[in-house]
Amino acid sequence: MKKKYTVTDRIITKVTGWIAVLTILGLGVWGGFTLYGYYKFEQTNDAQVQEYVNPVISRAGGFIVAVKFEENQPVKKGDTLLIIDNREYKLQVAQTAAAIQKSEAQLQVLESNIHTLERNADAVKAQIKANEAKVLKQKLDYERYTELYKEESATKQKLEDIQAALDVSTSDYQTSQETFNAAASKIEDIRAEKSVVLAEITRLKALLERNKLDVDYTVITASYDGRMGRRTVEVGQMIDAGEVLAFIVNNETDKWVVANFKETQIAQMHIGDTVKILADAFPNKAFKGTIISLSPATGSSFSLLPPDNSTGNYVKIVQRVPVRIRVEGNRKEIDVLKVGMNVNVYSPKKQHHG
Q1: Which residues form the domain of 245?
Q2: How far apart are CA 332 and CA 335, in angstroms?
Q3: Which UniProt keywords apply (predicted)?
Q4: Is residue 209 located within the same domain as residue 98?
Q5: Does the pLDDT of residue 2 top 70, yes or no?
Q6: How far is CA 311 from CA 23, 76, 315, 318, 334, in A?
Q7: For residues 154 and 150, what is the distance between their CA atoms, to the nearest angstrom?
Q8: At what angle do helices 156-217 and 87-150 cross, to 10 degrees?
Q9: Which of 217, 221, 214 is nearest to 246 (CA)?
Q10: Tens digits of per-residue pLDDT, 55-103?
Q11: Alpha-carbon gap, residue 125 to 180, rounded angstroms
C-alpha cells in the first residue's frame, strides 16, 4: 500500500529541516568563534573585581551618640561618620592640665627656695670672710701677747683673755663654714627635686597631648573619598577601642581584577599587556585592563596548608597563578564594577613590546 503525505506533514518536515540546518550553522559559527577565541586569547572566568575595602575602626571606646552615614552612601575625605561621647575624655584633659599647673606652681616654689638659700649662702660666705679675718687678727694678737708674756711685759690673765677670744673666733669661723656647706647642700637637694618636678611636667604634658588625641578620636571621620559599606553600629551602643564599626571602599585608589590563569596560560603574559574584561553583570560591555603584576607563586602556595607532593599520594593538578590587572577608564565608567563581581578576562596571545 502506497504511503501518502499530507501537506501538513510536508510543511513540518521542511520547517524541521531548516531548523536543523540553522541549528548546525549556529553551532558551527559559535564553535568557530569559540575556537578563534581560544586561538587568539588566553582566557579565564576565574576572576573577580577587587578594591581596597578597609574597616572603619574606633581608636577610643565609649557610647555612640551619633551615626552620620548610611550603608552604600558616598562620602568625602574628612566627612564625620561617627561621634562617641567625649565627656570622660574631656575630664581627663582637665585633670591632666590641673596636674601640670600644680607641678609648675611647685616648680616656682622650689625656684624661690633656691633663690632664698643662695642669698643666705652669700651672706654666710661674707660672714666666713669676716670670721676668717677676725681669726687671723686674733692669732696675731695671741702671738704678740705670747712674746710679751715671755718678756714679762703682759700678764697671764691678758694672755688667757686673748686665747679665749681666739678660740671663740675660730669656733665662729668653723660654724659659719658649716652653715655655708649646709646651705649649699640644701640648694643641691632642691635642684635635684626641681629636676624631678621638671620630668613630671614633661610626662604630664605628653599625657595631656594623648588625652587631647583621645578627645579627637571620639569623632571618627572618613580617611579618603569612598563609599560606605556594611554598618554594624547604632546610637547608644557601647564600643571598645579597636572595634570594627563599618567598612569603606576607597575611591582614591585603582580598581583592579585578580584573574587566576592556569600555569599553562601565562607564558606569554607580561606586565603592561592590555587585556579585555567582560563582567557577568554587563556581558555586552567590554572593559580595558592592563596587567600590573603576576604573583610570585601559585595561589595554592599561599594557602594555610599548602600541598605537600612528597607524601606519595601525588596527583598532578594544573595550578593557577593570580594575575593582577588594573581596570582602565574614568571612574564613572568603571564604578559599575563592584568588589567581588565575577568577570571573564581575555589576554591576547603573542603581544609584542617595543
Answers
A1: 53-80+220-249
A2: 5
A3: Coiled coil, Membrane, Transmembrane, Transmembrane helix
A4: yes
A5: no
A6: 50, 54, 11, 18, 46
A7: 8
A8: 170
A9: 221
A10: 999 999 999 999 999 998 999 999 999 999 999 999 999 999 999 999 9
A11: 7
